[in-house]
Amino acid sequence: MRKRLLTSFLLGGALVAPIAQAETLEETATVFGMREAILDISLSPSGNQIAYIAPAGHSTEAVFIVDLNGNAEPKPIIQFSEENAELTECDWATETRFVCEVAGILKDGSTPVSFSRLLAIGADGSEAKLLTQRTSSRALGFRQNGGDIIALDLEGEQDKILMTRQWIKEVSINTRLANEEEGLGVDEVDVVSGRRSKLERPDENAVAYIADEDGRVRMKVRQPDAVGGMLSDRRLFYFRKPDSRSWELLSRIEVDSQTYSGLYPVAINSAENIAYAFASHNGYEALYTIPLEEGGEPSLLLSREDADVDRLIRIGRDRRVVGASYATERRENAYIDTELKTLSDGLRQALPGKPLITIIGASSDENILMIVASSDTDPGMTYLYDKGSRRLEPLLPLRNHMDGRTLSEMKPVTFPASDGVEVPGYLTLPPGSDGKNLPTIVLPHGGPSSRDEWGFDWLVQFFAARGYAVLQPNYRGSSGYGSDWFGKNGFQAWQTAIGDVNGAGRWMVSQGIADPDKLAIVGWSYGGYAALQSQVLDASLYKAVVAIAPVTDLEQLRSESMRYTSGRLVDSFIGRGDHVRAGSPGRNIDAFKSPVLLVHGDLDLNVDVNQSRVMHDRLEDADKAVKYIEFENVAHSLDATKVRYEMLKEIDTFLSTNMAN
User: Fold this and answer.
1) What is the DSSP secondary-structure string of 201-262?
2) What is the pLDDT of residues 596-605, one digit of tens each?
3) What does the pLDDT look like over 32-55, one tens digit per residue?
4) In Gene Ontology terms, what is a biological process of this protein (predicted)?
5) What's the mean pLDDT in 502-515?
6) For residue 15, what is the DSSP state?
């Protein structure tokens, strides 16, 4: 009999007490700056065990195993501690062993470079095996890509997985054993012994492989190099028939650093011999199927006339496609599996607050499902659902440290831009507020090929807890709303995007929600760029500006990207023309009037830290009010509890000081 999993076991102590009415900045920053209690979780093939990763101190993660048929008490089996690397996920390969990924950043001179490694570990923490091929001392390069699992279960094989492998040429002087091959291939790897055999020979232009549900490699994705070793703007998708070893061209797409055009295959259904692919339909992204045969024509499966269908829904160890999703005011699931649709709809209606329902794991027979239910005021609870008994059992909260708190609702709104276009967004008010004459933050999202969605947001909730109203505009240039809304992207059409962002602030004032003397803007990544560039259009609107990991100079961004193989794609996304200088806050320092806070991590792979360093120097040289905080050994997400705690305190102090004045 399965024992009930008590959440208190998983919290590492007693449940958090109810929140006192008055709370200091330090106390609020502690709660909202804390990492999730559960960083990753997976269900074993039988459905009788779970493995999860939890924070265990600064730059430290621990893996816990829970026997759901035993005492249901978490058992720590390994701990990983590395300053610039972390355990990111663990997946069960068998009932007794699982495979974990370590991802990190190291510096190649002054340039940060990402890397990953895969290792197999016993469910009792024993017999750890490195699955990523070790780099030879004769290698002519660094093995950056440690491999991706493309199949956990292979038909007729036990203890084996399929994973990609990056091959690197070796020096051949004084040896006949040097490897002469390079590129990405596929190996069949035994997770017990660590032994491997080559399944797909390396291809120097391959960037991915896709296996079907039976563990057969059915698709290869190639992105040929352009001049100087840069990735080209063409990506080619090849398929092979079930009984063939030959590759045939299926589709080709055009790409830049954030977008694509064409038919983009992403998964395979071997029973029907089709691929699922995304492509445009009437200006919106849609889901298609295409036969894996010569001359196969795509068929439309799922589409909307008001939103991009932009995510697959997959479950189980074979990653079976069961539907797709899209976001309007909330994210909605469109299932092609009728049983799961009925289950998902029923759970959504039965659970408090009609939360978002996400299936995150399944036993091999799919009779046991692992589910997360979450909403704007609920950071998320994991559940197990047994199809046989139709019983739903709670497992553990994703952020137990927020138990007992009153969180703020996130309400969809629209506001008019300067040209009359209605711009969608989300408004969050402080708990218990009447929504009048409040200190207010406009919070544009990053990307720009992204969008904000309804759901829990730790940064928004921190600001609301500190008494701020928060408006998150999905400005033109955001993704999810079709090609016309995306336009030329938020850099090339910055006037439109930033105009919408400023329109958000003016609307908050016009509605009486915002105190015009206490209106600020805060942004992260592209959102940080938008916060800074808002000064170029209207320096008097926002009384304080906070930019976290921002792009500040488009020409500098182009130059920095040339250190990486994606440089040509970034160059295309930025484009050429007068907008490059006019759209760079770092080239328009004279426009700035409001005080600026810059925050950046020195291991940022998305936006080089020099973007903030140079911006700070230019503002300071022009006698503008600016403060710069740089965190060491931290990446773009600033995903460390002590770093986020310090950042939240600094931002709140900066805003309250400058808006009070």
Assistant:
1) EEETTEEEEEE-TTS-EEEEEE--B-GGG-B-SEEEEEE--TT----EEEEEEEE-SS-EEE
2) 999 999 999 9
3) 999 999 999 999 999 999 999 999
4) proteolysis
5) 98
6) P
The two structure tokens encoding residue 481: 């709303």
Residue pLDDT, tens place only, 273-290: 999 999 999 999 999 999
For 274: left if phi > 0, alpha if psi spans -120 to 50, otherwise beta; the answer is beta
DSSP per residue, 506-538: HHHHHTT-EEEEEEEEEEETHHHHHHHHHHHH-
Q: How far is CA 504 from CA 205, 508, 577, in A?
A: 44, 6, 28
Closest by CA to 264, choosing from 203, 319, 308, 215, is 308
Residue 301, SS3 per DSSP = strand
What is the value of pTM for the model shown? Answer: 0.93
Nearest to 198 by CA among 206, 208, 188, 207: 188
Return d(Cα 202, Cα 200) in angstroms, integer: 6
- Give the tens place of pLDDT for each residue, 207-237: 999 999 999 999 999 998 756 678 888 999 9
Geometric angle at alpha carbon 181, from 178 and 183, rounded to 5°: 135
How many CA atoms lie within 13 Å of 353's alpha carbon, on the beta-carbon side? 19
The architecture CATH gives domain 410-660: 3-Layer(aba) Sandwich (3.40)
Amino acid making up residue 341: K
H/E run at residue 645: helix 641-660
- Cα–Cα distance measured from residue 225 to residue 223, given in angstroms and rounded to the nearest whole number: 7
Contact 340, 322 (CB under 8 A): yes
Cα distances from 565 to residues 220, 229, 235, 253, in angstroms, run: 20, 7, 14, 18
User: Which residue type is seen at 530?
Assistant: A
- Whether the Cβ atoms of residue 523 and residue 444 lie closer than 8 Å to each other: yes
For residue 131, the one-letter residue type is L
Do 297 and 288 meet the contact criterion of CB atoms below 8 Å apart?
no
